[in-house]
Amino acid sequence: MTLSLAHLLLSLLLTGLPRFASGAHDYQDALSKAILFFEGQRSGFLPQDQRITWRATSGLSDGSMYNTDLTGGYYDAGDNVKFGFPMAFTATMLAWSVIEFGDSMPPNELRNSLVATRWVTDYLLKTLSQLPNRIFVQVGDPNSDHNCWERPEDMDTARTVYAVDAPNPASDVAGESAAALAASSIAFRSSDPGYSDTLLRNAINAFQFADSYRGAYSDNSNVKDGACPYYCDFDGYQDELLWGAAWLRRATQKDTYLNYIESNGKTLGADENINEFGWDNKHAGLNVLVSKEVLEGNMYSLQSYKASADSFMCTLIPESSASHIEYTPGGLIYRPGGSNLQHATSIAFLSLVYANYLSRTSQSINCGNLYVSPTTLRQLAKRQVDYILGDNPKGLSYMVGYGDYYPQRIHHRGSSLPSIKDHPQFIACKEGSIYFNSTNPNPNVLVGAVVGGPGEDDLYEDDRADYKRSEPTTYINAPLVGGLAYLLLIPTLVRTNSARLFHFCM
């Protein structure tokens, strides 16, 4: 095979992953809206500068069951429960977006990103306030909550507080909380050093709890009925221990955490499940994060992490002999299970971060039968973001409020029920059913919300009842913030000649 023919074949395979005609996207507008979405998910007392004005204060009694203040934080999706595990991951990804791509954000959006991050880190500090003996992992009984269709401002379902007391384990939630606060301490270091110090101190305490009492939080009998089946720890707690240690290493530069990553990698399964990244499985993100140290510091003792990061990136390339990730006919990364866009946004984010790490050290990836450059990874990420914004078979923007054609009937209580400002009368649990079952568009536009998205066939019905496809989540949006910020910096990517992105190992 000639080199030019190889170039042409790979170019066609990567992008076809077909492309759909559209004008250039306004990434700055999309970034603004992706961040704005988090204001629609706020719990607690809303400030005067709240921009999503159809929302109001809610959840002010949260924590009363333990005579403690657990107000604030985010509702994770379209319901009114505060699940600590995905919320902490959301904070980590918002902070990582600022760390890696904050310099390319307009100043006002950098500020808004930090505000969105602080809304959740302030809450996480409350959940850790009774360490070293107790961590709060959830507020709200999901079974009674999911039995109602109520605005958060009206909710009268049980605000059950789920806590884990030592020596019972919560390595996953505590480890992710440690990662979130350590990453956020870096994000806030220049703008608020005092707050940064507070975050780091609490991150260290959270990690100590996670490591001292090893096990999954959802294995606790007093937590399982609340966490499962929604946010059980399905993939094990070991990755969160390494993930928390890796972020503490980056935040502190202490050898204590470097030694932990080195010595515990094998015993905690760092080489397992390397092709996953999301709220429940941190392996691919862990490997990318640790690889920065390998690439920049010649840390040969951590080479296995970089090898796993390389392997993950190779799985994304259709023509690679290691190709593993599925794509829809329209070019979207696809994994079974619903809420598919969480995979597209998180993998796109990792691709951009790793591309940057490789570029700074002038390296590419050997994927067996071909080399993959940082530019390839950036193009792949851009393709995912553009698909979400409307370059797809349906021509539909999966971000609410972006463009002229986007989902109108998202699975979200506050968006689908009349605003308390327009309808101040109480709407009881079952009284909301009429709005859930309505075929009318949601009366309140949750600007910036990215829904679960289409399935493996690129099909999407704008159906409120189809929660796997129509429900937005904080952990879909959080990594997208970083991806959009990067694309603001490199507007010429759209003109890159894809035939220059690969070359075969000859």
From TrEMBL:
Domain Glycoside hydrolase family: 27-482
GO BP: cellulose catabolic process
Keyword Heme assigned: no
Enzyme class (EC, first level): hydrolase
Signal peptide region: 1-23
Keyword field contains Iron: no
Catalytic reaction(s) noted: Endohydrolysis of (1->4)-beta-D-glucosidic linkages in cellulose, lichenin and cereal beta-D-glucans
Domain of life: Eukaryota
Catalytic residues (positions): H411, D462, E471
PROSITE patterns in alphabetical order: GH9_2, GH9_3
Keywords noted in UniProt: Carbohydrate metabolism, Cellulose degradation, Glycosidase, Hydrolase, Polysaccharide degradation, Signal
Enzyme Commission numbers on file: 3.2.1.4
Pfam families reported in the protein's UniProt record: Glyco_hydro_9
InterPro entries linked: 6-hairpin_glycosidase_sf (IPR008928), 6hp_glycosidase-like_sf (IPR012341), Glyco_hydro_9 (IPR001701), Glyco_hydro_9_Asp/Glu_AS (IPR033126), Glyco_hydro_9_His_AS (IPR018221)
GO MF term (any one): cellulase activity
Family: Belongs to the glycosyl hydrolase 9 (cellulase E) family.
Protein name (database record): Endoglucanase
Source species: Morella rubra
